[in-house]
Amino acid sequence: MTSVPSGPSMLRAYAPAVLWALAIFVASSIPSNAMPRSIILSQDKLLHMGVYAVLGFVLYRGFRRGQDWRWEIAGWVTFGVGVLYGASDEFHQHFVPGRSMDVYDLLADAVGVACAIGVARYLERRRTRPA
Fold first, then answer.
1. Nearest Cα to 49, choosing from 113, 102, 92, 117?
2. Among candidates 17, 2, 4, which has minimal Cα distance to 61?
3. Which of 31, 40, 108, 111 is buried deepest, with most CB atoms within 10 A?
4. Distance, CA of 16 to CA of 3 (rounded, Å)
5. Residue from 68, 51, 71 nearest 121 by CA
6. What is the pTM of this model?
7. Tens-digit pLDDT profile for residues 86-104
8. Distant-in-sequence, close-in-space partners of 68: CB < 8 Å, separation ≥ 6
9. CB–CB of 32/97 below 8 Å?
């Protein structure tokens, strides 16, 4: 049986994911006509993948540390939470002037979360592999 982490360790585990999700929400609240133009922003789907890869990485890290779950469970929960957050973000953008819901954005979000889980698992295995 695993122990339940204490308050401070739970905060350390989940704070990065909560802060990143808050940053995504704030950025999604900016009307499109107020968004700065740049070469990066013209690559919308890559931007979605990158932003949600970060979310996926910090979520996975949080679930592994905060819940002490096996990697398979942490991976599936990370994917579910990341995609649900992406869907809620797309719904939120429906109400922001100049923004809209886009299923392809959600697909890019899901790909980003999945890639992050793969990278996080690779780094875990590499860190725990005997020399």
1. 113
2. 17
3. 108
4. 22
5. 71
6. 0.84
7. 999 999 999 999 888 999 9
8. 2, 3, 5
9. yes
